[in-house]
From TrEMBL, chain B:
This is Globin domain-containing protein. The lineage of its organism: Eukaryota, Metazoa, Chordata, Craniata, Vertebrata. The keyword Iron applies. InterPro entries: Globin, Globin-like_sf, Globin/Proto, Hemoglobin_b, Hemoglobin_oxygen_transport. The gene is HBE1. GO terms for biological process: hydrogen peroxide catabolic process. The keyword Transferase does not apply. GO terms for molecular function: haptoglobin binding; heme binding; metal ion binding; organic acid binding; oxygen binding; oxygen carrier activity; peroxidase activity. Belongs to the globin family.
């Protein structure tokens, strides 16, 4: 399921719109993660405040979205450019890769919510494919 | 039996009240485009060769309405979805031979359609209620498979 030229341009276009609202999107994604899939909070047992406005959620929401935006820039070379992030997730954070699918679903959902006219079925499939490749690249160092 | 809180019931009824009749069509179109292998179940529908063909296909539109009516059955029988859906489950298993994993794919597309329609009104709590409802529907549809 590789990205063709149309997929790449769809991904670049929607994330260009998303970039100025990166923190807002990240906060929405994480809020949904913690509310709809409460087991994901287990990775953040050191946090004090899981509410949407908290400093922790805002900071981490931005971190996650900045990672995604970096992946958009490095789309042609994900496995190499995400190597250190893969090592982080594999050896330090040890996030079960099943959660990558969960966060991807919520990224798609928030994009649909905030950009309903832009998130057409064609853009949806391109972003879904792209996020699947990001998830694969993040899993590279796991075992 | 599934336990629904009052808030969850209200969320589902509210969403249902706000959904346009085209929601089923939109969800099905999205499913056929985003997960093209699902087209295997619609070989009698004519051309599904590209996104434009799928979007303008009248049989897809009609079937979207059928699916939405089916979902409406679950909305109206929230305390009894498993029994309500038993005949539908048999149909999908014995006659249509649909891999139940596809129910999840269509369910996700419905969720995206609802989110796009409601925007910020689709809060995290409402999303939780909706996804719980979709999961119950999917389980009921898969129940009669053997």
């Amino acid at each position: 399921m590789s990205l063709n030229a149309k997929d790449k341009s769809n991904v670049k276009a929607i994330f260009a719109k998303a970039e100025p609202r990166a923190e807002e999107i990240g906060v929405e994604v994480l809020s949904r993660l913690f509310t709809v899939y409460p087991q994901t909070k287990s990775y953040f047992s050191h946090w004090k405040d899981f509410t949407a406005g908290s400093a922790e959620v805002r900071k981490h929401g931005l971190t996650v979205m900045q990672g995604v935006l970096r992946a958009v820039d490095m789309m042609d070379n994900l496995n190499t450019s995400l190597l250190s992030l893969s090592e982080l997730h594999a050896f330090k954070l040890r996030v079960d890769p099943a959660n990558f699918k969960i966060i991807s679903h919520n990224i798609l959902l928030v994009l649909a919510m905030l950009f309903p006219d832009d998130f057409t079925p064609d853009v949806h499939v391109s972003v879904d494919k792209f996020l699947a490749q990001v998830n694969l690249a993040l899993s590279v160092k796991y075992r | 039996m599934v336990a629904w809180t009052d808030a969850e019931r209200k969320a589902i009824q509210d969403i249902w009240g706000k959904l346009k009749p085209a929601a089923g069509q939109k969800a099905l179109i999205r499913c056929l485009i985003v997960y093209p292998w699902t087209q295997r179940y619609f070989s009698s529908f004519g051309s599904l060769s590209d996104a434009a063909a799928i979007k303008s296909n009248k049989k897809v539109a009609a079937h979207g309405e059928v699916v939405l009516k089916g979902l409406g059955l679950a909305v109206k029988n929230m305390d009894n979805i498993k029994a309500t859906y038993a005949p539908l489950s048999v149909l999908h298993s014995e006659k249509l031979h649909v891999d139940p994993d596809n129910f999840r794919l269509l369910g996700d597309c419905f969720t995206i359609v609802v989110a796009a329609h409601l925007g910020r009104a689709f809060t995290a709590d409402i999303q939780a209620a909706w996804q719980k409802f979709v999961a119950v529907v999917i389980a009921a549809l898969a129940k009669q498979y053997h």
